[in-house]
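Input/output pair, single chain:
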Amino acid sequence: MASVTDYLHPKDLARLANHQVLAKRVVEGFCSGLHRSPHKGFSVEFKQHRPYVPGDEIRHIDWKVFGKSDRFYIREYEEETNLRCNLLLDASGSMDYRGTRSDNRSKLDYASRLAACLSYMMLRQTDSVGLITFDTKARKILPPRGRPAHVSNLIGVLEETKPGGETDLGAVFHELVPKLKRRGLVVIISDCFAEVESLMKGLAHFRHAKHDVLIFQIWDPDELDFPFRQWTRFDCLEQAERKHTVDPNHLRQAYLENLRVFREDLTQGCHRNRIDLVPMTTDQPYAEALSHYLAMRKRGARPSR
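Output:
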């Protein structure tokens, strides 16, 4: 089994060393960490005063308020809690595409290394992270754990994951929501090739369950600019029997227009559901793209589309 440094380049890990994966929404958890909890505690950030009642610990009394009011009040705080994250990795056939500008790296190869990098970062900051791979349905479910050694289990699953068949993202997401027992951060790594209305319903189900949702949309550059000039055979990666040899010059304008509409509809749908949609291309180093996004997220900015 590969180690972290076998699977991820040390220079990439160094580039991301000063970044943290912070949840934007309130999340649940057990331990004290980097993320605000919905439960009231007695540490980190002041929340409110309340009158003292018998049984309260004396050490939580605000003596300054007592000195001014001659009454006992307890200081309550927002707990900080560790983040519970589930990575959802699309392993459908379309993720097997690899163009001529990505060093023979498929979208799934790129997505797997991105998932490994995110896992390493979150475990390093004492958060818990799990992994779900899927195509037509969930294929492998690795529950969230917070132990540093858990990264080896995650990388083991990623190494074993091969492209599968076709998928209906909306239906798969509806299936997965009940499996995530506690609200937290759901990170979807996918090309998002699906009917947008169905996909949005699946994503809205996650949001209804109070999850913070983040999508890394993986593109090969070929899919964005359609560089084909000569007669080309196009093979469907999700239905092997579908193959067409065509003159791409006759398709380019219609393809690019359909692509524009798809991306616009997807962007608007994610915006309505308060979901960050982060495009990444397989010719761009994942550490560079991830570093840029995490810096923007920390500032509260939205990713460019």
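The chain has ten helices and eleven strands. Residues 35-81 form one domain.
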